[in-house]
Design goal:
Layout lengths: L5 E6 L7 H14 L3 E5 L2 H7 L2 E4 L26 H14 L3 E6 L1 H14 L3 E5 L15 H22 L2 E6 L6 H10 L3 E3 L9 H7 L9 E6 L6 H12 L5 E5 L11 H19 L5 E6 L2 E6 H6 L6 H10 L2
Parallel strand pairs: 1-2, 1-4, 4-5, 5-10, 6-8, 6-9, 7-8
Antiparallel strand pairs: 2-3, 10-11
Length: about 325
C-alpha cells in the first residue's frame, strides 16, 4: 500500500467562486486523516519555483465565503515542457509531497494527467471552472454562482432595454461551451441564446430575425457565448447594423465580472463535498481521476475521459427557450 503522508494542493487556470471552499475542504479533510498539507501558490508555476507553505486548519478559516483563490493562479508554459515537469517533480520530492490535489478545469487536468503518467504521482482533480464544460460531472465549482451573477446583470439590463425599446446582445463566457449562455438565458427570460454548439446547424442570428422575435415586445435580450465562432456580441451587433438597421442595438460584455463574487450556497456545498471526496479517493489509492457529481452522487471520472470527451448541452432547453420567448 502506498502511504500518503503529505499532499500538495494548488489552483490553476481561471479562478472560479468556490475554489476557496474547496481549498478549505481538502485541507481540513487531510488534516482530519493525519495527512500534512502543503499549499502551492500560483498553480503549477509555484510547483516549479517552490512557492510552497505548510497549511494548518487555521490557514483556511474564514475563507468559505470568499471569491477567487487564496492560493492565486497563473498560467505556466514551463509545466508544458518535460524539463519544467521534471523541476516540479524535484520540488515535490524536496518538499516531501506524496500526492497532489489540483483544482481547475480542462487545462489543469491535462497537465495533471501527463505529469501523473510521467512520474507515477497520485493526483486527484477537483473541477473548478465557471464554464461547466467538463465531461462526467453535472456541475463544476463556480458555475452556479457565475450563472446567478449573469442573471442579476441581465435583470438590470432589462430595465434599460425596456425603457429605450432596444435590442441588447449580452456576451457571457463560454469560449467552447454554451452552458452559461443557454441556462442564464432561460433563467433571465432572454429571447434567445447564441451558442457555439449550434453554429454548424443554422445561422442563429438570421433564424432569430426570421422568427420575428420582437413581434409582441418592445425590447429584446440575446445572450451570446464569447466564442470566436459566434463572432461575439460585438460582431453580431455590427452585423445587425449592416443587415437590419431598423433595430436599435446595444452591446454589454460582462467579462470577468462573471468570475468574481462570493460563492452561492450550492457552490460552497459542492466544493465542500468534492474536497472531502478528493482526499477519500487518495486514501483509497485512486489516481488520475477527477471528482464529479452526477444525480447528487459523487463519482470518479478518469482524467482521460474528463478532458477528451465533449459534454453536450441539453437540446430540450433550446426548445423551451424558443417556446417561452414568444
Amino acid at each position: 500500500m502506498y502511504r500518503i503522508n503529505c499532499i500538495g494542493i494548488l489552483t490553476s487556470g481561471g479562478d472560479a467562486p468556490g475554489m476557496n471552499a474547496a481549498i478549505r475542504s481538502v485541507t481540513r479533510t487531510a488534516i482530519f486523516n493525519g495527512i500534512q498539507v502543503k499549499a502551492i501558490y500560483r498553480g503549477y508555476k509555484g510547483l516549479i519555483t517552490g512557492e510552497i507553505k505548510e497549511f494548518h486548519t487555521e490557514d483556511v478559516s474564514n475563507i468559505i465565503q470568499r471569491g477567487g483563490t487564496i492560493l492565486k493562479t497563473a498560467r505556466c508554459k514551463e509545466f508544458m515542457t518535460p524539463e519544467g515537469r521534471q523541476v516540479a517533480f524535484e520540488t515535490m520530492q524536496r518538499e516531501g509531497i506524496d500526492a497532489l490535489v489540483v483544482i481547475g478545469g480542462d487545462g489543469t487536468f491535462t497537465g495533471a494527467h501527463i505529469f501523473g503518467q510521467e512520474y507515477n504521482v497520485p493526483i486527484v482533480g477537483v473541477p473548478g471552472t465557471i464554464d461547466n464544460d467538463l465531461w462526467g460531472t453535472d456541475s463544476t465549482i463556480g458555475y452556479d454562482t457565475a450563472m446567478n451573477t449573469i442573471v442579476e446583470a441581465v435583470d438590470k439590463i432589462r430595465d434599460t432595454a425596456n425603457s429605450h425599446e432596444r435590442l441588447f446582445f449580452v456576451e457571457v463566457m463560454g469560449r467552447d461551451a454554451g452552458f452559461l449562455a443557454l441556462n442564464s438565458a432561460l433563467a433571465s427570460g432572454a429571447e434567445a441564446a447564441i451558442i457555439p454548439e449550434r453554429l454548424t446547424k443554422e445561422d442563429q442570428l438570421e433564424e432569430l430575425i426570421k422568427n420575428g422575435f420582437r413581434k409582441s415586445k418592445n425590447s429584446s435580450i440575446v445572450i451570446v457565448a464569447e466564442s470566436p465562432s459566434t463572432g461575439g456580441a460585438q460582431g453580431l451587433a455590427e452585423r445587425m447594423h449592416r443587415e437590419h438597421p431598423e433595430y436599435d442595438v446595444r452591446v454589454t460584455i460582462l467579462g470577468h465580472l462573471q468570475r468574481g463574487g462570493s460563492p452561492k450556497a450550492y457552490d460552497r456545498i459542492l466544493a465542500s463535498r468534492m474536497g472531502v471526496a478528493a482526499i477519500d479517493a487518495l486514501l483509497d489509492e485512486q489516481r488520475s481521476i477527477m471528482i464529479g457529481i452526477v444525480n447528487d452522487e459523487i463519482v470518479h471520472v478518469p482524467f482521460s475521459k474528463a478532458i477528451k470527451d465533449d459534454k453536450q448541452v441539453n437540446p430540450d432547453k433550446l426548445g423551451v427557450l424558443q417556446i417561452l420567448s414568444i
